[in-house]
Design brief:
single chain; 310 residues; Rossmann fold; 11 strands; Malonyl-ACP_OMT; transferase; ubiquinone; NADH dehydrogenase [ubiquinone] 1 alpha subcomplex assembly factor 5
Length: 310
């Protein structure tokens, strides 16, 4: 629902594509390191087609974009709230176009197919996919290991899975500022940002899912915003709002203003803007195959590292 709601305002949605577009470009760069051309690449959690913008015919012939969001009718009204930036959603009928079809008229360098599919329960035939990718989508999944197991099952032997996820340090500035403000004003804290993955856990998760040769690397993207409220408005437009079910539904104005002041004091720039960190975790795993390189048995080395280093 977050994604569909964000995609309902097409112009605004496109203006906040910058994070997912940038990460998609970096993800495709990692695909280029794999020295093979794929007939078909399947994308899980495709959103509005961020990977489709970056991928070209040298990498694959076809990209199958799978996304869970669908069209639905919802009562919605776009109005400015008290800080005149963030869009609030209140009752007024509006039909929402899903994120998967937001840019359906755009021409890409590869053939694109669109399918509705839940990334929580990927519905693929076993041994049917050469490569599966996912760009900043799997942090919405409740059972990440379960989804990875289904993805591994869908891959052909020696097929590759490559994904990007938001890491635990994402938006730590916003999280800290809200917590300090709530602690000061209310004497306690509430979760206002959805949990993200710990990069140190990802190698183990890939192994638990049965994927071999796991590779994990971390990158950080720092974006400057005029204020905390501009950041929150962009997050809302991206469809990356808080998805915790038991979260508080409202935040007091005084708490928000206090958080904005704390944010600017702790993480402000000289020009008056504030910075926000997006930690990106990139993971690669392969479906096991006898042709893949394997570590030698302990004690089988014929050359001592000590002699090499001396």
């Amino acid at each position: 629902m977050h994604k569909d709601r964000a995609a309902s305002n097409v112009d605004e949605s496109r203006q906040v594509d910058y994070i997912k577009d940038e990460v998609a470009t970096r993800l495709v760069d990692r695909l280029l390191d794999i020295k093979r051309k794929f007939g078909t690449i399947v994308e899980v959690g495709a959103g509005c087609g961020h990977i489709a913008k970056s991928i070209d015919s040298d990498i694959a012939d076809t990209l199958i974009m799978c996304e869970n969001s669908g069209k639905f009718s919802v009562k919605i009204k776009f109005s400015f709230n008290f800080w005149n930036i963030d869009k609030m959603f209140n009752p007024t009928s509006k039909f929402i176009e899903n994120s998967l079809n937001r840019d359906s008229n755009v021409k890409y360098d590869v053939k694109v197919e669109r399918r509705k599919m839940d990334e929580e329960i990927p519905d693929f035939e076993e041994n049917s996919c050469e490569a599966i990718v996912s760009n900043l989508s799997l942090h919405w999944v409740n059972d990440l290991v379960g989804s990875l197991i289904k993805i591994r099952s869908a891959l052909i032997p020696d097929g590759v899975f490559l994904a990007s996820l938001f890491g635990g340090d994402t938006l730590f500035e916003l999280r800290t500022s809200l917590q300090l403000a709530e602690q000061e004003r209310l004497g306690g804290i509430s979760p206002h940002i959805s949990p993200m993955v710990d990069p140190s856990d990802m190698g183990g998760l890939l192994t638990r899912a049965g994927l071999s040769i796991p590779t994990v690397d971390v990158d950080k993207i720092i974006v400057n915003y005029p204020s905390m409220f501009h950041l929150m408005a962009d997050l809302n437009a991206m469809g990356e709002g808080n998805a915790i079910m038991k979260r508080p539904r409202t935040i007091r104005r005084s708490t928000l203003y206090a958080a904005a002041s704390i944010y600017k004091e702790l993480y402000g720039n000289e020009d008056g803007s504030i910075q926000a960190t997006f930690e990106i975790v990139y993971i690669i795993g392969w479906k096991p195959d006898p042709s893949q390189p394997k570590p030698l048995k302990r004690g089988s080395a014929e050359v001592s590292m000590k002699s090499v280093l001396e």
